[in-house]
Amino acid sequence: MNLQPIAHIHSPFPEKFGVPRQSGLIEDLRAEVVFLPEFRVREAFRGLEGFSHLWLLWQFSQSPQGKWSPTVRPPRLGGNQRVGVFASRSPFRPNPLGLSCVALEAVNDQDPQGPKLLVRGADLVDGTPIFDVKPYLPQADCRPEATGGFAQDTPWAELQVEAPPALWETVPPETRQALAAVLAADPRPHYHKDPNRVYGMSFAGLEVKFTVDGPILRVQSIQKSS
Amino acid sequence: MNLQPIAHIHSPFPEKFGVPRQSGLIEDLRAEVVFLPEFRVREAFRGLEGFSHLWLLWQFSQSPQGKWSPTVRPPRLGGNQRVGVFASRSPFRPNPLGLSCVALEAVNDQDPQGPKLLVRGADLVDGTPIFDVKPYLPQADCRPEATGGFAQDTPWAELQVEAPPALWETVPPETRQALAAVLAADPRPHYHKDPNRVYGMSFAGLEVKFTVDGPILRVQSIQKSS
């Protein structure tokens, strides 16, 4: 079956580094779903604002295509334990389809590119192609009885974020909370431990450099992306 | 993006008639996910049995391709009210991808066609192509705070199923509970009201004929499919 993108996401992450490991982890993260001209049809969204959450079905466009591996090493397990690809949400799947639940903040149909969807908690890189948007149906999709295998036994460790106030002031106010939450979620790939390593992350037009020593993340510099 | 099926479902529904309107509505419904030979790799399923629920991403193969409509009439609203296609789970979408949450009963790797997945609560027609299987992650996928727009205000009406005991005895014991639940869920398309109309449904190798008068569904005959 051949899929055509219907939309792309506009998110603060130009690269994969820093993207939350799951949707919904960071509700302060805002993103916009911008549809291709063919789908900018107001009628197609009628009733959508009555739903608090949506599913996005999207393409793992940042991962090499045509490759899949029977086992993967999920970051949640520290990156050194293998599980089956079908027991994971890894991008290295036979069909590179991503599935994310996001909160719907608003349907913006005033914009010339509208209707656009303003969502929260997305774990998608900027520009990711989206194939479908579906309402989250609590009766069908929310299963409080569900148990989650290995994932539920290993909560994410939150880091304590420290930054000189003067540096923090350079971050636009509307970006601060989201940036702090992204850093607290530990954006390092897999399990890194070197306290001297300086990491760089692009976020919302900023280049953020930081180090991590144990549970403390120290912001070293924040500059506008060139 | 081009998708290749990785599996097909073996379900009791040779046709769309009677398929539950949502996944998870009828937990007594059993189905099997049978993978294509390339994906019959035990390793690819390692750890899957630790999850109680799965996502199936599949093709709306019963619906005409290449057609989408900005608005649809969901059966839950009686079939006569229009909502936007993106505010529905209708098959008539730009990309005909279905998304269903099913309970995982067992991973059968003893079968020559294994590993096969035995699932419950699927809302898929027999033979539906499946593009992906993902674990249901409670932390990411279960959102108790979610509210569901129009769908939550209109619960499904359950029918009372009546059948002569002798007729019921002709149904194989392992099929009875599921058949009764499918009938109770009211398999009629949209909102039909004619008490004289005889409906026919194919289910698990049986042809079931019934009428519906108000809240009562009366089974008229049950025969082996020819």
Note the main sheet of chain A. Answer: 6 strands, antiparallel, barrel
Shape of chain A: globular
| Helix percentage of chain A | under 10%
H-E string of chain A:
EEEEEEEEHEHHEEE
Instruction: Tell me which oligomeric state these chains represent.
Output: homodimer
Structural class of chain A: mainly beta
Poorly predicted ranges of chain A = none
Mean pLDDT of chain A: 92
Largest interface: A-B, 65 and 65 residues
Termini Cα gap of chain A: 40 Å
At a glance:
Two copies of one chain form a homodimer. Chain A has 226 residues and is mainly β.
Can you characterise this structure?
Two copies of one chain form a homodimer. With 226 residues, chain A is mainly β. Chain A is 9% helix and 31% strand. Chain A has three helices and twelve strands, in the order ββββββββαβααβββ. Chain A has helices at residues 138-141, 165-168, 173-184, and strands spanning 7-10, 30-35, 53-59, 71-72, 83-84, 97-108, 116-120, 129-135, 160-162, 199-203, 206-213, 216-224. In chain A, the strands form three sheets. A six-stranded antiparallel barrel of chain A has the order 1-2-7-6-3-8. Chain A has a four-stranded mixed β-sheet with strand order 9-12-11-10. A two-stranded antiparallel ribbon of chain A has the order 4-5. The termini of chain A are far apart. The mean pLDDT of chain A is 92.
Features:
homodimer, 226 residues, mainly beta, 6-stranded antiparallel barrel, 4-stranded mixed β-sheet, globular
Topology:
2 copies of one chain form a homodimer.
Chain A: E1 7-10, E2 30-35, E3 53-59, E4 71-72, E5 83-84, E6 97-108, E7 116-120, E8 129-135, H1 138-141, E9 160-162, H2 165-168, H3 173-184, E10 199-203, E11 206-213, E12 216-224
Parallel strand pairs in A: 9-12
Antiparallel strand pairs in A: 1-2, 1-8, 2-7, 3-6, 3-8, 4-5, 6-7, 10-11, 11-12
